[in-house]
Write a structure and sequence with these properties.
Elements lengths: L1 H23 L3 H10 L11 H6 L4 H12 L3 H10 L6 H17 L2 H16 L2 E3 L5 E3 L3 H22 L6 H18 L8 H11 L7 H12 L5 H17 L4 H4 L7 H22 L8
Antiparallel strand pairs: 1-2
Helix pairs in contact: 1-14, 2-6, 4-8, 4-12, 6-7, 8-9, 8-10, 12-14
Length: about 290
Amino acid sequence: MDMPASGGRKVREGLGSMLFSRVAGPSGPANRARIHDTPGPRWFGAERPIRRVHGDASMFIGGLSALLLQSLHPLAMAAVAGHSGFRGDPWGRLQRTSTFLAVTTYGTAQDAQDAVDRVRTVHEGIRGTTAAGEPYHAADPHLLGWVHAAEVDSFLRAHQRFGAHPLDAAGCDGYVADTALVAAALGVVDPPRDRAALTALLTQYRPELRATPEALDAARFILRHPPLPRAARAPYALLAANAIDLLPPWAPGLLGLRPARGPRATCVRLSGHALTRTIRWAMAPPPRPAR
C-alpha cells in the first residue's frame, strides 16, 4: 500500500521540480529562501490579494496571455524585440520576470525596492526607433502604463477563471490597488487602483494598438515554436489555447488568432482547469516540520 503513495509523491516532486526550475532558473532555490525567509517588513502583508493571485497556478496561463496582449503596442513590442533577447533566451527572460514578481510580492521592502531600482536602470538604457520611425524609450511612463495594465488585467482574468480561490469584487479592487504600488515605484504615473479604472485605462490605449510584424512573429514563436522538449508540447498547447481564450474579445483578431467557439471553447476551458489543478498539485510546498 505504501508503493502507490511513494510513487505518486515521486511523480509530484519530479514534476514540481521541473516546473520550478523552468520558471525560477538555477538560482531559484536560493532566491526562494532569501525572498521568504529573510526577516523584515514587506510591501504586502499575508492577507493582501496580490499574494493570493501571484501565488496561484493560474499565473502560468495569465503570464502567457499577458505577453500576447502586451505585444499589441508597437512601441512596447519594438523594445522587447530589440532589447529583451526573448528569442535567444526565453527561459532567462521568464526567470527574471518571475523573480521580480516574487521579490516585490513576497520579499522584504528593501529587496523589493532594490529589484525595482535595477529594473528602472535597465529601462533607462532601452531606447530606439521602430521600423515605422517612431521613437521609443522603455522608461516612458505612458509605455510603462500599458505594460502594467495589460499584465494586471491578464493576471486577474486568469485568477478569476482558473484560480483556486477567486477574489470577490473587493478583492479584485484590492489586487489592482496592490499592483499600483509596484507600478508607481517603476515609474507609472497614476496607475489604476480599482478594476473599473483598469478597464477604463485599457480602453484608452485601444487606438494605439496594432499587430506589427514583430508582434506577429513573437506570437508565432510563443504559441507554435516554444523551446520545449517533446513531452511538454501537448500540455503547453493547452496552456496556449487558454491564454488565447483569456484575451479580451477584441485582441485575438489583431494577432490573427481564432479563439475556440461553442463546445470547443468549453473543452479548452476545462483543459485549463485541469492544467492549473495539476500545476498546483505539483508545486504545492512541502509541509513544514512541526516545532
